[in-house]
Amino acid sequence: MLAIAWILLSLKDEKPGIRQALDNPIQASIKQSAGDKNEKTINSEFYPIRNWLIDDPEVLAKSAIIVNFKIDNPKNNILYQKNINQVLPIASLTKIMTAIIALENFNQDEIIKVSKDSVEIDGDKGGLINGEELKVGDLLYIMLMESSNDAAMALAQDNSRLGYEEFINLMNNKAVELNLKNTVFYDPVGLSPKNQSTVLEIVDLTKYALNYPLISEIFKTNQKTISSLDEKFIHNLVNTNKLLGKIPQIIGGKTGFTDEADGCMMTIYKISENNYLITVVLGSTQREADTEKLINWAQDAYIWQ
Question: Could you say which DSSP state residue 110 is in?
């Protein structure tokens, strides 16, 4: 079977382009020689097939991963790895877990009144106003799209159901439940360098988060306008994921940055129906460039059915 795969690979007409439309899945152009009268096909379970003539990419991130998975078979197929078990600060990738805990404990239509303490947290994204009232679902948009620290704090400490420490405990309990052995949280924002994980565990956390349609929808939303309950305050949101819209097949992601963590980035890339890539980079001085390089490499270094 490996010999057949190598012959098919050597006769591939062209490499797939990264900017194909979402409804036009990546296709390998595979042809057999004219002398092969009995055509044989490769079982789909063997795809993607690695082209070993193409070297691994060079990325600046301390740790990086590309995982291919299918919805009906969520097992991780690691296509590329660099220090995937290295524990590193994750900055605002923390907010993926914050969103999960919020959705598992609050109704999306619940109202939260933003406190002065939440507004005064470090970071100016989101532009929340002391005393304004927002729905939980709207705070999730502000938190995940603009990586708003004040929105994350409002969800964790201004709600009427949970205390702040209880919220953090639930984040860590969920990490244990998901068997994320190297993942720990000290705040819901990501400012603490003690908020740590690995690229491999961020992949698993992301896959779990995709079970929530609202999180999936927010991940792929480029721009949105949110109003306070009384419509006095308007928030025009722009997603911090600069690759969203630039690479059409990217259907979501989350960014993060602190001085201690450097650049962090998770992206979700649709190959075809129910077939996806997740890339994660941690500790990068050029998170977007590293991520784009990994995605381009996955196109060139593998044949996709």
Answer: -
